[in-house]
Fold this protein.
Amino acid sequence: MAYNKKDHYYHKAKEQNYAARSAFKLEEIDGRFRIFKPGMKVFDLGAAPGSWSQYASKKIGEHGRILGVDLEAIQVRLPNAEFHKGDLKDRAQLESWILPFNPPFDVVMSDMAPKTTGIRVTDQARSLVLCELAFHLATQYLRAGGFFICKNFHSGDFQQFRALLQKSFEKLEILRPQSTRKESKEIFFIGLGYKPAS
């Protein structure tokens, strides 16, 4: 049976003026692990359509700042956020956007997902590549003690990545938010207390 795209969370997102239902996944993560605080700097990877930044924007307040980057244009406008369309692998371009934020960031978060093929193994492998990219950027721009949030299409091949994160954070949590659709393979890694490599 096909999933109901316009389910409870779809309508809830519309009511609360979120760009997408994914805001509630981040809300649940934050509710459990108390990540966002006023004045934080947040790096939002794969930020389109903007719902994660919308949620974070409220939590970090007027003195906080968000940098969001995506291959697609981000239509959301927020007073404490700056959005750019571009490739996170383009180091020179990325640096030009990051430097004005005076890194490191308090939070690096990624809701990135590959363009799905319908072939589960392929989609899971591509998702893991994006997780690795997100973590690589975290190692460059996340402060010691900071937070990392990353979406992954769960598979049996992620143990090595999980082990890497376990070494890199004081605590690693794995969560499947309640607002995730039943047929989805999404899980989220939540790294608490980043420990930079010495």
